[in-house]
Amino acid sequence: xxxxxxxxxxxxxxxxxxxxxxxxxxxxxxxxxxxxxxxxxxxxxxxxxxxxxxxxxxxxxxxxxxxxxxxxxxxxxxxxxxxxxxxxxxxxxxxxxxxxxxxxxxxxxxxxxxxxxxxxxxxxxxxxxxxxxxxxxxxxxxxxxxxxxxxxxxxxxxxxxxxxxxxxxxxxxxxxxxxxxxxxxxxxxxxxxxxxxxxxxxxxxxxxxxxxxxxxxxxxxxxxxxxxxxxxxxxxxxxxxxxxxxxxxxxxxxxxxxxxxxxxxxxxxxxxxxxxxxxxxxxxxxxxxxxxxxxxxxxxxxxxxxxxxxxxxxxxxxxxxxxx
Amino acid sequence: xxxxxxxxxxxxxxxxxxxxxxxxxxxxxxxxxxxxxxxxxxxxxxxxxxxxxxxxxxxxxxxxxxxxxxxxxxxxxxxxxxxxxxxxxxxxxxxxxxxxxxxxxxxxxxxxxxxxxxxxxxxxxxxxxxxxxxxxxxxxxxxxxxxxxxxxxxxxxxxxxxxxxxxxxxxxxxxxxxxxxxxxxxxxxxxxxxxxxxxxxxxxxxxxxxxxxxxxxxxxxxxxxxxxxxxxxxxxxxxxxxxxxxxxxxxxxxxxxxxxxxxxxxxxxxxxxxxxxxxxxxxxxxxxxxxxxxxxxxxxxxxxxxxxxxxxxx
Amino acid sequence: xxxxxxxxxxxxxxxxxxxxxxxxxxxxxxxxxxxxxxxxxxxxxxxxxxxxxxxxxxxxxxxxxxxxxxxxxxxxxxxxxxxxxxxxxxxxxxxxxxxxxxxxxxxxxxxxxxxxxxxxxxxxxxxxxxxxxxxxxxxxxxxxxxxxxxxxxxxxxxxxxxxxxxxxxxxxxxxxxxxxxxxxxxxxxxxxxxxxxxxxxxxxxxxxxxxxxxxxxxxxxxxxxxxxxxxxxxxxxxxxxxxxxxxxxxxxxxxxxxxxxxxxxxxxxxxxxxxxxxxxxxxxxxxxxxxxxxxxxxxxxxxxxxxxxxxxxxxxxxxxxxx
Amino acid sequence: xxxxxxxxxxxxxxxxxxxxxxxxxxxxxxxxxxxxxxxxxxxxxxxxxxxxxxxxxxxxxxxxxxxxxxxxxxxxxxxxxxxxxxxxxxxxxxxxxxxxxxxxxxxxxxxxxxxxxxxxxxxxxxxxxxxxxxxxxxxxxxxxxxxxxxxxxxxxxxxxxxxxxxxxxxxxxxxxxxxxxxxxxxxxxxxxxxxxxxxxxxxxxxxxxxxxxxxxxxxxxxxxxxxxxxxxxxxxxxxxxxxxxxxxxxxxxxxxxxxxxxxxxxxxxxxxxxxxxxxxxxxxxxxxxxxxxxxxxxxxxxxxxxxxxxxxxxxxxxxxxxxxxx
Amino acid sequence: xxxxxxxxxxxxxxxxxxxxxxxxxxxxxxxxxxxxxxxxxxxxxxxxxxxxxxxxxxxxxxxxxxxxxxxxxxxxxxxxxxxxxxxxxxxxxxxxxxxxxxxxxxxxxxxxxxxxxxxxxxxxxxxxxxxxxxxxxxxxxxxxxxxxxxxxxxxxxxxxxxxxxxxxxxxxxxxxxxxxxxxxxxxxxxxxxxxxxxxxxxxxxxxxxxxxxxxxxxxxxxxxxxxxxxxxxxxxxxxxxxxxxxxxxxxxxxxxxxxxxxxxxxxxxxxxxxxxxxxxxxxxxxxxxxxxxxxxxxxxxxxxxxxxxxxxxxxxxxxxxxxxxxxxxxxxxxxxxxxxxxxxxxxxxxxxxxxxxxxxxxxxxxxxxxxxxxxxxxxxxxxxxxxxxxxxxxxxxxxxxxxxxxxxxxxxxxxxxxxxxxxxxxxxxxxxxxxxxxxxxxxxxxxxxxxxxxxxxxxxxxxxxxxxxxxxxxxxxxxxxxxxxxxxxxxxxxxxxxxxxxxxxxxxxxxxxxxxxxxxxxxxxxxxxxxxxxx
Lengths: 324, 314, 323, 326, 535
Ligand SMILES: Nc1ncnc2c1ncn2[C@@H]1O[C@H](COP(=O)(O)OP(=O)(O)OP(=O)(O)O)[C@@H](O)[C@H]1O
Ligand SMILES: Nc1ncnc2c1ncn2[C@@H]1O[C@H](COP(=O)(O)OP(=O)(O)OP(=O)(O)O)[C@@H](O)[C@H]1O
Ligand SMILES: [Mg+2]
Ligand SMILES: [Mg+2]
Known about the structure:
The complex is a heteropentamer of chains A (324), B (314), C (323), D (326) and E (535).
Chain A: H1 2-27, H2 33-40, H3 47-57, H4 63-75, H5 90-125, H6 130-143, H7 147-161, H8 181-218, H9 221-228, H10 233-270, H11 276-285, H12 289-317
Helix pairs in contact in A: 1-12, 2-3, 5-6, 5-8, 5-10, 5-11, 6-8, 7-8, 7-10, 8-10, 9-10, 10-11, 10-12, 11-12
Chain B: H1 18-24, H2 27-44, H3 46-49, H4 80-116, H5 118-133, H6 136-144, H7 152-162, H8 165-179, H9 182-190, H10 194-202, H11 207-230, H12 241-250, H13 259-287, H14 295-306
Helix pairs in contact in B: 2-4, 2-13, 4-5, 4-7, 4-8, 4-11, 4-13, 5-8, 6-7, 7-11, 8-11, 9-10, 11-12, 11-13, 12-13
Chain D: E1 10-22, E2 29-41, E3 46-51, H1 57-65, E4 72-77, E5 80-81, H2 87-96, E6 97-100, H3 114-125, H4 132-144, H5 150-154, H6 163-176, E7 181-185, H7 193-209, E8 213-217, H8 221-227, E9 230-235, E10 238-244, H9 245-250, H10 255-263, E11 313-314, E12 320-321
Parallel strand pairs in D: 3-8, 3-9, 6-7, 7-8
Antiparallel strand pairs in D: 1-2, 1-4, 4-5, 9-10, 10-12, 11-12
Helix pairs in contact in D: 3-6, 4-6, 6-7
The complex binds adenosine-5'-triphosphate (ATP) (2 copies) and magnesium ion (2 copies).
GO biological process, one term (chain A): transmembrane transport
Keywords (chain A): Cell membrane, Membrane, Transmembrane, Transmembrane helix, Transport
Transmembrane segments (chain A): 7-25, 93-119, 140-158, 187-208, 245-266, 296-317
């Protein structure tokens, strides 16, 4: 319990730091949101109008006042109004983007984790065998590939040339979101290539991580004892070894959420997938403060939440952490 | 027992320090080093390989690979081969620069936190955790756009500043376990200065972790530079592997059939990544010999199988 | 209490560790047998191959280890040739194991109860959940731990208790032979004594054989009926426990006996054994102990002596001095 | 060995040591690792400190070496309180008191050569040695601990040596600064039986040749008796019995000492299976704990035992016991 | 319901559509509803000025003193909710624009406080006649006033904060006003049942898709998802036409792109230097390679080009044509002669006073064809010994620097309009050169009084010949002084698919400008001219 409390204290502090950073970072960027709006009129404004727009879209008050206002907003979960899509509330766009990023990254992380972990278990169990000697290095090298190139090649080959998969978007334009199987099928169909492009470059890490932890465990006495007890291979492999090896994997999983959300950005760009990454790039280009802030905050929060969940999972899975 | 193919250890390795000897006899590690060295040399010696200027047009647009343009030309008529060679300088420079810087910052923070403990540790660990928790790439994008145009240098600095979380964490854990080792206490009781203990007693034992952090950091930095340039947040004037991809993508190299504009930088990145991965494999195996899958184990399994037996345990 | 019927015979057992650039012959053609109900000890300094023998016996040789020759016979069948099904029955039904460090022998994230019951489920599925549980309770009582603690996790027990749990697991199926590889070295002497006494008591009740490994000669003599002394992968002497100190045949055995300062008598200077054991990857010719032996002769450096039975001592030894 | 009780080199005077065990700010628990320890080290003699694991033996040695400060009480070196040592005096003290650690694998830095390990203390504490003299001193030291030919060892790294050789290097390093006091914290516990005696004999020779005051920590009472003239028995941070080694082993008076001696493997008997007692865990000694720590396991315990810890009783020839039921 | 005839067009890139149909919201909505749901008073047919399309007005009259214009409004027009349209709506719209300066409705309302703007007031003459009073005589005011999109007074009168108003159910007079099937990825604007166009209008709905990035957009057209685009192309003969038999494009020349140089500082303040600059640039390469052969050459160094071909007096300008021809030798000769030589032997030329020359060409990130052009220019300039480098920057920073005047040179578009006046006025209006508020078009900051005079004269006559004369004066002054260095004419991006519709504007039948973006009022005429192909 104490462990969890300490973690909670850390999360609160980290959250505060993130909130503060998120406020200041976009503000030290040159340019301000009104510039883009003014520019979008291509000179068709007279000066009075330019000034009026500056006054009403630009930022007002001292930095400190802005900061206080912003913290208040954050606490109320009010993220202001987007200037790229004026006057849409940031939260509605954010929610929309986050949903699709969650679909994309959620599926990708799950599969990468499952596939990589299973492969890692297999490789470690048959250490030195064909699978281990061939696939371990290959899978890990895939990890060092550029997501951009992988996404691009998939898009080019399967969407443009072979036309097996759609050109982009999260679902066909005619459909409206619902839980019916047709829509879900359509979403999965659209997500296939983007997911694949994240998957390809990420499962190798899980493979290697699991393999290495497993191998270290294989020589532990408790594993030898399990073997000596005549337990079945399956039981030793999963209950005795994988069960323990999964603990560090879960911690890395949580930390990788941030990396993956970031990495999805390129994929979303290539596949015109309406996720947060795309919105973020646009928001940055147009100095949409409220969106950048809200987006960074959301990312930080999701990483924090992921970490918190992994802490809890660790406590549940590792009895050694339960007390103290 | 001939089937087990036991070779005598090459004699010359005995003159090297044991971990170095382990490295040079590790086939994965050495192939990584050789590939990497080849790429680095290729980049450094770029002017020797090509008379073209990577920033200037060298021929007609989209010339297919030919005698004059070994890897063809870009849509703008720049020589791809030359760009790959020169681009390597910056990509590798950013990668290694940021990788090394992040590893060094991580090392400094990790060691200090682990060695000094107490308040220092609490504070440093907090920052490490914050850096770990802050979303990486998006933050980099925001910071990179702070400056009007994110040249390779800026990208490198930003990557270094955001990339030290991981190494700091592993190194701190490692330091914590080293600090309880008696040779550290013994040096303290001997009256050694703190910095000397850190540099001479602790650091050398952390070399492999440092190396591994450096290698992984470098891969991450190279990939991040490529990704940032690819989505157009880099400086398109710079010639790096990432900007080459950016231009290839912008000029629809794939659609126009100019595969030679996109594959060379893509392969260069992949090859570098692969080489670094192999080096990291070797470093892992040296720190933890168990990880060495060892052809030996496979051979023993076969040996036993042929005799109708199976390996007893793993 | 031990009969003279051999229950397990080890013949010419050879085990190698295959390295990248070398082969280490950790056990070099050793012969001995363990009789029914007997406590047989393997003594010798660190690295001489005691554990390797034990693991080979239990068919637990770890890669890159390789049993490259010899036999382990159980009722005439070679254990090393057992197929999967037979091996499963052999393991734990016939031979069980207690490891050196209980800290590492129990899986930290699985409740202790499950670590006991899963072996019962595997080998006696007919007992069912309740039967297995009941058996676990019995075992806990047998080793003197309150059964209400069955569902605790290993870290919640003290070192001595953990070691007792390991013993409980080893007893789960009433095996014929329990191998104990340094079962108490990580423990305090007082706790050690406590556990050893408990083992003796249970052994007296259940009548299994024990292969006991330690480098504490004193403890071994107290506990074992017969003792084999190993040096550098070979057995140099096999003798009744009492004879090891009082009437050692092999100079190494004698030297070993001299390495334990006594608790009584005047404080006199003892000499240990000078030098270090040979590197298994490049062994000396002849007797492996010769380089450290105060009585080494010319022949010792050229020919390896063989283990021979000396009826007057009821001991076997391998030394040229005795001829 | 009858000698006028020399003035002690090191004197621990009623030393307490508390460690914070954790807990939040308010309900922090303090582990009392040492309670009222008084010990004296005299030149030319060794004092063995025996006791169960976790009883505070290492803590004693580390406090003498200056790694921790006492929570109360004082440690004096030739009558001077060592907690007052600062700067140069502290640096000098560090050369006067040297420690040899338990673990020959852990106490040498695997990445540094043997030469480095010997050179550092010489450079730090023997400014008189210049140039070649350092090198020569290193060779002399190695030969002194029986590592011959010495020159061979300088370039080697710890992993190239056997455990016994490493422990010798550690001893050579401790001796390099010509200390008056040698603190040996289980210097043989990780060593194989065959080399253990070699190290003990070496320490014995050094003790006599250099007239060292030695503190020998072990939980093996037999080697304590073998090496040290005096033995002190610790239990849960308390000294329970102290006196000449032979007396302690031949005539243990404290129930814990008796239990300990009883437990030592003895080839001259067979194990009896008439057990009644069962080892309970050593109690966690905290600020609030009272009485004799051994009470939970003591067969003779009476009600007074859980109330207070008696002071030492002298039962002759320097043999002290702390027990109510003598 | 899917027998509907739907035209899919793509006037703006976005990450997600928003449910906002405010006709004056520039972040997207106005692209969807202007022209289609909200009609202007008058649709100028820029390419065929004799064939304008009266919209909510049927006629206009310019007062002789050029101080006012009177519009006759169309009678019998109904808003899509059934209310009548009349002069009150127009007056309301003007007053509304005046009251809400931060909600720019495209009317240059005069503001006393700052003495800016040109339209002083709107007067209701009768229910269907409105008179706009101007601050100064202006023969060109009709172009701007015709572009007023009247708002229905009965709806907007109650809207307090128009810029934040989402206008989810637009009420207009145009052919398509009904929003249907809104989602983040597509939205439809369907037939206005009260529209007077319904007889000729074959299209039931317009559909707008969320799309982003040229690659995606082109792929969408190839796949038959979009009919009408205005997206940038790269090697269209390879990447576009072959993708589908229905894919077509036509890229008539549009406004010019110029190199804006900061003539307030050395070396750009030297005319000889500017001449050298002009001839040092290899425009052929830029047109053919840097911009993929999609741009067109400009013949004369006048800052505007073929988009206003009818205004150019070839004969008068011929002597300046050499300034547009690539001649590096000539450039070096000019530089040498003017004293720009490499005085310090660092490989680069110096100013006559010996100070080094090095300058940047600023281009926003991601504007790749411009970056390519900039790189070619810097190569060209380096070839003649000038140390010029391309500097790309974030668009926000790029915007900022332009205004503060803190720059060396920019590649810059030119504003378009019905006459070249719309291009030259912002380029030479002294108000656009004031310190700290420099307009993009006037970044050169060189005042040319003869141009200012000619512009004033141009504006104060409605006579085409007189205007032509003034325009020639302007051209000559610009060519003589080279305040900007002309580069090439941008393409007008226009792609269309013949899969579902016929009747597209083609090179052979250029009946209106085929631009899909808002700002081209003719686009509604184009859409109404399309007929479905039945397959
Ligand atoms: N996995 C391995 N690879 C290579 N050599 C090994 C391996 N395991 C053991 N050995 C070697 O085999 C020899 C015998 O080892 P073993 O563990 O049987 O010794 P032991 O007598 O049990 O020693 P200890 O008392 O220290 O447990 C040693 O020299 C050891 O170095
Ligand atoms: N730095 C420390 N912080 C907190 N507790 C400590 C610290 N050092 C020692 N202790 C505790 O003090 C008690 C005494 O420890 P010490 O190491 O002195 O025992 P020991 O008798 O040397 O045991 P061993 O025989 O295992 O070496 C133990 O309970 C230990 O956990
Ligand atoms: Mg062993
Ligand atoms: Mg200790």
